[in-house]
From TrEMBL:
It holds the Pfam family ABM. PROSITE patterns: ABM. This is ABM domain-containing protein. InterPro entries: ABM_dom (IPR007138), Dimeric_a/b-barrel (IPR011008). Coiled coil: none annotated. It comes from the Bacteria.
């Protein structure tokens, strides 16, 4: 499984446009993607800050999401000031029922889209997690 927390900052005055894009993204993601488990957007305390909790059955489902037509079809550069993706892993017994985040190797027969996604969004498992999985 792959779970991420996106730390997002929106350009000034773009909050309404951002939230409209997010409503569209959530609707299309749940409508068209079988591998999505959680996909939620939240406003942060700091001005123009948002968070997204994304959880997929595996990193391939996350990569398919990132490369999907409904994801690639938005002009994120118009609204995003900054975004940082952080892979997160649930604490056993306290993670909302989500399984651990895993990083399987890219299969030799992976599509070009999956290879591009692997380059753009490499999954990293911090060393200190190993004893905590």
């Amino acid at each position: 499984m792959a779970t991420l927390l996106a730390h997002i900052r929106i350009k000034p005055g773009k909050e309404e446009a951002w939230e409209a894009i997010m409503r569209s993204m959530v609707l299309e993601t749940f409508r068209t993607e079988a591998g999505v488990i959680r996909y939620e957007y939240w406003k942060g305390e700091a001005e123009r800050s948002y968070y997204c909790l994304l959880s997929f059955r595996d990193k391939w489902a996350f990569y398919a999401h990132q490369m999907s037509d409904h994801h690639e079809g938005h002009d994120f550069a118009e609204v995003l000031e900054d975004i940082r993706l952080e892979y997160v892993g649930p604490v056993e017994g306290a993670g909302g029922g989500l399984p651990p985040t895993r990083d399987p190797a890219l299969p030799e027969d992976a599509s070009e889209a999956m290879r591009t996604a692997q380059e753009r969004f490499p999954l990293t498992i911090p060393a200190w997690w190993e004893a905590r999985l």
